[in-house]
Amino acid sequence: DLGAIGDNLGGPTVTAGPMHDQLYNLQMLEAAYHKLPQPKDSERARSYIPKHPVATPSSYPQVQAPIVNNPAFWERLGMEPYGADTLFFAFYYQQNTYQQYLAAKELKKQSWRFHKKYNTWFQRHEEPKVTTDEYEQGTYVYFDFHIANDDLQHGWCQRIKTEFTFEYNYLE
Amino acid sequence: LGIDLLTLGLNLNSSEDLHKTFSSPWSDEPAKGDPEFVVPQCYYTK
Amino acid sequence: EPDPAGFRDQVSSLLMEWYGICELPGANDVACSHFILKLHQGGFLKGDDMTDRFFRCLTEFAVAHCLSSEGINSGSAQSSQQPQSLSFLAIDTYAKLLFSILKYGPVEQGSSKLLVLQRIMAVTIRYIQKDAEDKKASFNPRPYFRLFINWLLDLNSSDPAVDGASFQILVTFSNAFHALQPLKVPSFSFAWLELVSHRSFMPKILTGNSQKGWPYFQRLLVDLFQFMEPFLRNAELGVPVHFLYKGTLRVLLVLLHDFPEFLCDYHFTFCDVIPPSCIQMRNIILSAFPRNMRLPDPSTPNLKIDLLAEISQSPRILSEVDAALKAKQMKADVDEYLKTRQQVSSFLSELKQRLLLPPSEAAISGTRYDVPLINSLVLYVGMQAIQQLQARTAHAQTPVNPASLAVFLISAALDIFQTLIVELDTEGRYLFLNAVANQLRYPNTHTHYFSFVLLYLFAESNQEIIQEQITRVLFERLIVNRPHPWGLLITFIELIKNPRYNFWNRSFIRCAPEIEKLFESVARSCG
């Protein structure tokens, strides 16, 4: 019943529905024409699910401002006086969202590079002393969550790492 | 004599693929289009 | 058999429980995976009859909830014109369950995830087919459309849970859409075309996987054309058919722009199922050319198409050109004749008769002729002639100038074409000339050869009616709105420019003032 096209592509052995005559098909098409899928039938609320939701006082906006999905917003945030910290915040605290992607793009533009093994962003502090096809070695700044040994003082900060080897297969 | 196909809402001279913003066969508006992005697996830090 | 006692209540409470999990704020991976494990332990996901019952109930509850919201949300005084606002809460909740089964299902049964997906798809297909059969004109496709949209978006995400099986998942969707094609579920037609052309499906099945997805999508396009074909034979289309037709044009334009090679390689299949009256739609397909090809402007003065590099390359044809010939047991006779050119068993004189349909089929097909058989005969014979040509020029002692038309005179093939053009009646001749004109596409050996065949038949024929009909077949393809295939333009330009065809002195050019003006305006637009 498929005419010149062999039904040789397989598929579930679903009971073949009945074939109808043209008049029936036209009537059903007419009926379907009055029940077209609507644009919103295809849209899914882009529900952002915060990882660790905190009850936000009702005086605050209850949904994210659309601007966080605007690439230009993140370009501005990357500039002075905001600097990279906001980008790092979006990257680590808004995971699996478009803004994480935008923040990462902006960090990359500022020549930060992500180390997949340490989940850490590095930036050359000076030209590396050694560079080969597999890695580079030198002094880097990196953005890290630092816990002081007395555990009193901790938080995100930028630190210096000398003699670090950045293996390229860990470069995302 | 057919339809002037340029009136169907598709930018046939676009250098970009049309399917990315093809909203539906019934509409001559391009889809707003979810931003096309993939967050690499390693960005999901535990 | 009916569901076991209490089964439906059990499924209903599981759906409520699942809804509760989905409503939890934040990512609830742990809760999801516990619930999926519970379903496994409850025996709902073994892929057996219980699984079918489970998902059939879930579908029923979710659809019922959605349609029950029809009255609530949009007020009772809704006109049938205004689209109802439906709540998809239950549909979305149920849809998420499928993705979660794939994502959180026990990993050791990697392959069985796909089986569970195919099983759930088969249950869904049967449910839709039955619902459409029962409800007929009051069937509402929108809940099912929403269900598939959810699954398309979830299962085509790049989530690692499904990434590995993405091609098989696309094939599963393709088989599902094939089972729900308009000829089988006509009341699902609009939803169906929107799903098949969705940006989460069409580009994915046509991209990558070394084009393994192409045959599946080609089959879906054929499903659509076969459904529309009876309604497109007449020029006047009813509103719903015209709406579906315009939607089809949009999809074809996206394919023409983004995947032209796909249209190129399956043009023969599509021409089999597009009615001859659908000239513009067919032109879209025939105008496709490979993206890496640059077409010279057909109106370039003294354009030497014989010298184009591409003109000696054969086009890729993925359709089974000789399928119809084999099905009608004609292939052997054709091969025999092409090889020996003997009057075997009066092959030529019977040819016309063999192209006719039995009266019963003629009534359904709207024509007395077997169009796919004519298409198959014309292209197959042409391809054999081209092969002989290439063999001959490859072994020629003195290099044969491909520009000389003489090389085309593979007489066995031309015998067949000349027999057809002389013996067929007007309708048959029109269908035969259409089959030839359908090969006038981008620069390749088929375009070159069939362009020659049309011009040769025009020049050699001593009946004006034949010359008129050849002109008509070319002309009707040129006066419709764009696009126009490159091979069509260069053939028509050659016909009107080359004095050998003495075109402008043909009486049918002047059969009416507006016709004469039309010829002149088309000639001008062809430069």
Oligomer: heterotrimer
Class inferred from helices and paired strands of chain B? little secondary structure
* Helix share, percent of chain B: under 10%
- Helix tally of chain B? 0
Structural class of chain C: mainly alpha
Radius of gyration over C-alpha positions of chain B, nearest whole angstrom:
16 Å
Low-confidence segments of chain B: none
Number of strands of chain C: 0
Q: In terms of per-residue confidence, which ranges of chain C show pLDDT below 50 for 5 or more consecutive residues?
A: 74-78
- Helix and strand pattern of chain C: HHHHHHHHHHHHHHHHHHHHHHHHHH
Report the largest inter-chain contact.
Answer: A-C, 43 and 71 residues
Q: What is the helix tally of chain C?
A: 26
Strand composition percent of chain B: under 5%
Radius of gyration of chain C, in Å, reads: 28 Å
| C-alpha geometry of chain C | elongated
What does this structure look like?
The complex is a heterotrimer of chains A (172), B (46) and C (527). Chain A is α+β, with helices and mostly antiparallel strands. Chain A is built from 5 helices and 5 strands; from the N terminus they run H-H-H-H-H-E-E-E-E-E. In chain A, strands 1, 2, 3, 4 and 5 form a 5-stranded antiparallel beta sheet that branches. The radius of gyration of chain A is 27 Å and the shape is elongated. Chain B contains no helices and no strands. The mean pLDDT of chain B is 85. Chain C has 527 residues and is mainly α. Mean pLDDT of chain C is 89; it is low at 74-78. Classes of the chains: A alpha+beta (172), B little secondary structure (46), C mainly alpha (527). Chain A binds chain B through residues 36-37, 39, 42, 46, 69, 91-92, 95-98, 100-101, 104, 114, 116, 119, 172, and chain B through 23-24, 26-27, 34-35, 37-40, 42-45.
